[in-house]
User: Which sequence fits this backbone?
């Protein structure tokens, strides 16, 4: 079937063009919106500025296709091949790209708002500065991807591979990062307010100066992480692990730290006002000048902890374990 035949049928109301072969064809500027092109062969086809909105391109082969400025909004491209395709300035708003292979593709200036890239293959892709607000990247392969300055607010990244990805200056407010391996990544100075990061591996990660206000980090591992001067107020950190982490001058006011492991952690001058530390482990922790007024210390293990000059006003210490702890006045509790 040639292009003129397709246009004739399309103008007559036909929208079913499944499994056609249009490799290397020039379809630039054509209107094929709402057409069904599933399992079609469009390798190296020229589709610049074409209107493909709401098209069905399921399992289609678009390897090396030129889609500059194309309208692919709300198109369905599940399991399609877009390897080395040029999607510069393409409109992909609301498109479904489940399990799509975008290895080596160009997405510079593309509109990707509310796109679904569930389990898509995007290793090394350049998305620098892209607006990815609300994007679905669950289970996607973003290894080595350039995400610098991206807006990933409310993005769904649970199960994604971000190893080696460039994340400088990104926005992750309200993002879903549950269960990810993010150890050693630099998150300093970022806005992670209300982010969902439960069950994540964050040991050795740098969060210096970041905002994690209201963040969900239940059961996450943050051993030896740098959380100096971080806002974790009103956070949900039940069962989180902070062994030997640096939380100096951090704000943990009204934070849920029940059953958290804060052993040998640096909490000097931190604000734990009103925090719930029920069943938490602060064995050997450093709490110099720490604000603990109004905190709940029920069955809290403070064995060997240093509480020198800490504010314990309004705190019930009767159920805390204080064996060998240095109290605010410098005396060691027997």
Assistant:
């Amino acid at each position: 079937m040639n292009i003129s035949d397709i246009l004739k049928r399309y103008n007559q109301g036909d929208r079913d063009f499944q499994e056609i072969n249009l490799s290397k064809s020039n379809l630039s500027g054509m209107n094929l919106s709402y057409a069904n092109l599933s399992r079609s062969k469009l390798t190296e086809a020229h589709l610049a500025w074409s209107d493909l909105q709401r098209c069905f391109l399921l399992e289609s082969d678009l390897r090396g296709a030129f889609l500059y400025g194309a309208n692919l909004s709300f198109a369905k491209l599940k399991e399609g091949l877009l390897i080395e395709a040029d999607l510069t300035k393409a409109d992909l708003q609301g498109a479904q790209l489940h399990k799509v292979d975008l290895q080596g593709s160009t997405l510079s200036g593309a509109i990707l708002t509310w796109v679904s890239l569930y389990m898509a293959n995007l290793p090394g892709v350049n998305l620098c500065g892209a607006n990815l607000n609300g994007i679905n990247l669950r289970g996607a392969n973003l290894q080595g991807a350039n995400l610098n300055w991206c807006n990933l607010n409310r993005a769904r990244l649970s199960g994604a591979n971000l190893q080696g990805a460039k994340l400088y200056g990104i926005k992750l407010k309200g993002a879903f990062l549950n269960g990810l391996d993010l150890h050693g990544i630099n998150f300093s100075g970022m806005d992670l307010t209300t982010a969902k990061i439960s069950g994540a591996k964050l040991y050795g990660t740098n969060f210096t100066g970041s905002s994690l206000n209201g963040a969900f980090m239940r059961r996450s591992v943050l051993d030896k992480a740098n959380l100096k001067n971080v806002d974790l107020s009103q956070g949900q950190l039940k069962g989180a692990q902070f062994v030997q982490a640096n939380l100096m001058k951090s704000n943990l006011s009204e934070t849920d730290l029940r059953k958290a492991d804060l052993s040998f952690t640096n909490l000097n001058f931190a604000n734990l006002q009103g925090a719930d530390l029920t069943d938490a482990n602060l064995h050997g922790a450093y709490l110099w000048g720490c604000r603990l007024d109004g905190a709940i210390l029920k069955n809290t293990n403070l064995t060997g902890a240093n509480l020198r000059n800490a504010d314990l006003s309004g705190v019930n210490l009767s159920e805390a374990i204080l064996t060998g702890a240095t109290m605010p006045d410098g005396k060691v509790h027997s």
User: Anything to note?
Assistant: DSSP finds one helix and no strands in the chain. Helices lie at 3-11. The longest helix spans residues 3-11.
